[in-house]
Amino acid sequence: MKATTASAALILGLGLALTGCAGGAPAATGPSASAGSLEGSITVFAAASLKATFTELADDFEAANPGTIVELNFAGSSDLVTQITEGAPADVFASADTKNMAKVTEAALADGAPVDFATNTLEIAVPPGNPAGIESFADLARADAKVVVCAPAVPCGAATSTVETATGVDIAPVSEESSVTDVLGKVASGEADAGLVYVTDVIAAGDTVEGIAFDESGEAVNTYPIAALRDSASPAVARAFVAFVASAAGQRVLADAGFGAP
Amino acid sequence: MTLQFEARVGERGFDLSFQVAPGETVAVLGPNGAGKSTLLNLVAGLLRPDAGRATLGGEVLFDTAAGAFAAPHIRGISMLAQDALLFPHLSVLENVAFGPRSAGVRAAAARSAARDWLAEVDALELADRRPAELSGGQAQRIAVARALASEPRLLLLDEPMAALDVSVAPAMRRMLRRVLADRAAIVVTHDILDAFTLADRVIVLDGGAIVDGGVTAQVLERPRIRFTAGLAGLNLLTGVRTAGGLVGDDGVELRGAAAEPVAVGARAAASVRPSAVEVSLLEPDGTRNRMRGTVRDLEPRGDLVRVRTEVLSADVTPARAAELDLAAGTPVWLAFPETALSVYPAG
Amino acid sequence: MRTGLGGIPRWVAAIAAVGALFVLLPLAAMTTRVNWAEFLPLITSESSVAALLLSLRTSLAATALCVLLGVPMALVLARARFRGQRILRALVLLPMVLPPVVGGIALLYTFGRRGLIGQGLEVLGVSIAFSTTAVVLAQTFVALPFLVLSLEGALRTVGTRYEAVGATLGASPTTVLRRVTLPLVLPALLSGAVLSFARALGEFGATLTFAGSLQGTTRTLPLEIYLQRETSPDTAVALSLVLVVVAVVVVGFAHRAGAGAHLSAGLRS
Questions:
Q1: Which of C79, C161, C165 to mutate against chain B (most B CBs within 10 Å)?
Q2: Is the pTM of this model over 0.95?
Q3: With DSSP H G I counted as helix, E B as strand and the rest as coil, what are the percentages for chain C, rounded to 5?
């Protein structure tokens, strides 16, 4: 008898302990809005393509507002949406396209209306030396060219499809990747002759790839929105960060990285 | 089909040479670790010697000087171990047919030959059973049939009766006797009865070398070295031949008849059965041979107790052992009649 | 069949129950999120069917390759003796420890356009990256250790005595392998193959990095799930359930076959 009760208690206890650990507790500091000085810690969920810029923006924000801490979480936009809707503790969300932001607003998780803070267009990336001699968007449809693109389900892939439709050029890719990073990787290693990525990605990749701009890129402009989230523990800091990104200072950082104006 | 064999294996201290004549069965006796299994494994090709040469019927089995080594499966030598080691996933019939089929015989012919061999070992009714369903004795029988079915030029048996029940061993022994009659075979055994029943000749191994050998009856009834005498369960006395018998190396005069002619003054050996030796505390009267000794230990053997001293062993009844209050260290007199001593040449 | 703890202490059974829950609860949680109304259309869509068929084809091919390569490897590791054997065994098991993505990168450096062997192949007109062959290679790479490990253990346990008997009966080494060794380790071979198949089926990281992702050519079921979760989590969950069911069916079925082979071998312990 005793042994059975003990075993039952063991299972129950472990079960409770496991559920009790669910969801990391956010940092304890609540918003203290004394005039002019912000305090608090926020977690910003940002699309992977914003990594370099938002890291810099976070540093600048913390420098301008001592007493604030900005934690960053980068991933694919749809992954971030899933996390947010499942209750992950996020204070700000910056998406790589409006479609994913719409999912957040429709779920009534945003605090106020989202703000468009940047745009991005596509560029052709080729390995250093351009071994296949790609010169234009139409060259991507060449039979002998190994082209890697993003899958249509992903923002940069959607943009690719839009340009294809607008130009009438049908690319037969050898691979449709789920993230821009994977496309870049295959181009940089020389496995692919060319890939379609964002302008900002080409700049960030430095010498590992060469970029070839094409006029038709204007057919598909990706707009990046940002919004503070309703369940934030530090709403004042969250809103302040959103405002900072949209401010002149923030815009300069984004422009340096190659983003277009919103 | 003569087997000529000589080999050395350094790490086991193994170094010997011997022959097996066509149709001859040789028994190999010796204590554990003497090298009996090493010998069989070398002949079968499951072990490589450091140096040596062996041929069977003129064909080379191995020759380290020439760098030649025939793989086990082409030697035509089958081996039978203590464990039957029947292939568990094959039926009895398929086990026995394994050898012929490996030689390229068609399945139907192989099975028919397998049935013949099963009949030879009185196990035909077991043909469709699985090895897991067999008793130890039955499995060993099938193993013999399997070994013979591959038509070996030489058969090796490694203590074939050792794992069998006492009740089953005699039938197995009889069957082996019949089957080995005209075959070249080497039988490794602990059991003297096996040697007497199956073997024409005996080789005694100790420490990786041959210490004794010869015709079975000769070696086991008239041992020349203590070791063989121990294996055969006989007492051994050595000394110099006298007219009436033997004078031992310790100077004791013993009287007995000669089993083989030995010149007076020549080195001689004599054996005495422990069952013929009587133990007493006081010097025995009469004209029997007598020796003094100190009890080393007592070993119960069935309905007798073997009293071991430094000179002789004697078999006495438990009642007698108790009556004499024998224990290690007790000084005793050992006596045996003239008829119990047989003298023969030593060396 | 008599049920019971079989002598195991109660607290051990309790912890085992917790462990089982740990594995089963997430599966159950996933099942509760399945959109049953849309289930059939979701899993029978063109992309889903293409991914499933590709996964089955490539995993079967990879398993066959694992058996072809793995049996000799297991035999050598279990039977032969040579210098550096321990190190070789450790290296051969490396794909189990390596993060699959790292495995994919390593394969790329070998078979990619500019890879060690890939360069030569390119000259001959053979291109491996972005092909179904690449998928099979990636799956084989990660699944091979499972077969080798399972088989090598069994070979050691069975020992060499039966093989020695076979040899003295006149069977050549190949015949011994065919008629004695392999039948004796058949259960382990089957369970190793099943494990390899399951691992190949679920392979993701190496495939993504090495083979790419294109419907019908290289987008296996795990890659399809990864992609679908961007736009249609319902499809992703539905396909995941399909993957789980296929794996459970295959593993359960083959374990039965393996147990059956074990019984017929009649091995005495």
A1: C165
A2: no
A3: 75, 0, 25
